Amino acid sequence: MSRTSLRFALLCCALLGLPAARPAPAAPTLLPDSTTVERWTLPNGLDVVTQHVPGAGAVSVTWGYRIGLDDDPADRQGLASLLAEVAFTASAGTVPERTHDEMESLRPEGWSLKVTRHQSLFTETATPAQFAGVLHQAAMRMRGVTVTDAALGRALVTVRRQLGARYFGAPDQMLHWQVREYARGLDPAGVSTLAAAKGLDRETPRSIQEALARAYVPANGVLALAGDLSGVDLHAALAGEFGGIPGGVRRPDPAPVRLDSATAVLPRPEVSGPVGVVGIIAPALTDSLHPSFYLAMLFAGTRARQAWGLVDPPLTMRFQYALLDDPELARFYPKLGTRDPEAPEALGARFDDLVDELFSMSITLDSYDEFRRGVLWLLGGPMNTETAANVRRSRGALNLLCSSAASRALWGSDAFWTEYRRRLDPTVTPAVTFWGRWLLDPRHKVRLMLVPPR
After folding, report:
1. Would residue 17 be called left, alpha or beta, if left means φ above 0 and alpha means ψ between -120 and 50 degrees?
2. How many angstroms separate the CA atoms of 259 and 244, rounded?
3. What is the pTM of this model?
4. I want to staple 78 with a disulfide (CB 3.0 to 4.6 A). Which of 95, 197, 231, 421 is the partner?
5. How far apart are the C-alpha atoms of 309 and 317, rounded to whole Å?
6. Any idea where the domains of the chain sit in the sequence?
7. What is the pLDDT confidence band of residue 24, given thresholds at 50, 70 and 90?
């Protein structure tokens, strides 16, 4: 069909109120790691992405939606977490209610429920013999759960317990979660209000059911499969299980997150000495320079582990940057000396020393490429030999492969991630040293320190 004919056909469809034909799905892509990736969209708008991993001993199923923590209304903090908890545990059709404790026996191969800043993701893993049953139950949950007073009450208890642990539990959790809230402009009182989630007391089974019906719909969602998918006609199976679910409406893309520099010191009885985190505000994920920033963070995080040494309790790591979960903020946990003051300036000084040292080093293209190849599989590229072997034998690695594919699909198109991977090549984007001034600029830093009460 010529371009003129195609435009005419689309115009006729629009004038007649008929849906335009969806483009044919792209052919499956065979990656150098011997896995096959395919992506298509069902007529109801559900994005599907599959990765056939020959020889894998299980199949991982992830479904999810474009709604996350940053979508919570100001007066109903915790709503996205509550919706996810209800959707995952309430009864669905003939599938009864379930608890987190029961999931350990129901899905011994692995499972997860994750609500990130912009997404809600559910993963269940099964043996090949259980695959059809798990897929059917996932479809029933996507069709909608039954929200009762009891189910909502149990979900509220779970969500409030999780919020309390995040913001006022172990010091490492406090640092991780609270630093993001200070970057969003909250103060200690605002963080306490967020953790209490009192606004959720106004929710009813009907209000939750209606909220799920708006956001948890195929047009706003994704289904990802990873594992040994041989012998299964996936197009027919998924069309039969998921194709009849009403499509609904896709949520608009979230507005750019506004994070600003901030500083806070909090007295906490759990610590015997000062500990803290330096958050680095990142450029937008859609910025063409973001792949270069990501490479820089991988280098800086590795150097942080080397320079600051093993972590001592209550810290558990030196660096975090979850690209798909929270791309707006990278986190560093400096090692403080015995003579360092109990002040955020000490955190900043230790971090700046690291940056000065890192960007005075000579970094080869081979070093760049080693980091790039190590993360390509999380971004839709091929796995290296070690990772491919681990995915075949480790359920946790298989789950990560699957949930990452789902998260990428919610973030953007295949074309977006293809271009992102291209720009991750150090010969295409600026070198790591390009980011020295960005990392040293106080406008890009969020510092949070916990100190013993005095």
Report:
1. left
2. 41
3. 0.91
4. 197
5. 10
6. 31-242, 262-451
7. low
